[in-house]
Task: structure prediction
Amino acid sequence: MRNAFGYVLGFLVFVAGIPTLMWWVSGKPFPWAPTVPWAIVAIVFMISGLTLSIWSIVHMRKVGEGNPFDAYNHELAPRTKHLMTDGPYRFTRNPMLVGIYVYDIGILIWLQSWWPLVVFVGEVVLLTLQVRSEEKRLEADFREEYLAYKERVPRYFLK
Result:
């Protein structure tokens, strides 16, 4: 049950809630669509981002035997039992977030407004604070294994 709660909450916040807030601050009417070329680019970003996030979640569930949703030191679902260093985690330590960021960039392209960028920057700042908190927990849980992984793999994109 706790796993389902984490997934549903993650969907409501990251896939539905933040994009809804981005649309709202954009001032665009609903429904609204950009011209076809921009719509195609936006959809490619959105699908790519969601695909990366879903791959990361499935991989964590299968290999890590747990759930990613641990918000600001509050365990919302059972933590992973194994440090994730393969699959999407070999490219970035936070592939779920990178996927959400790519998805949100698709939303920004779709909306073609600067105001949603403020929401996106706020999201990145808050999630980076969350990631730093999570990194401390991972260092405590996995010690040298995590420190070596942290040295090899970037937090988000580039090392």
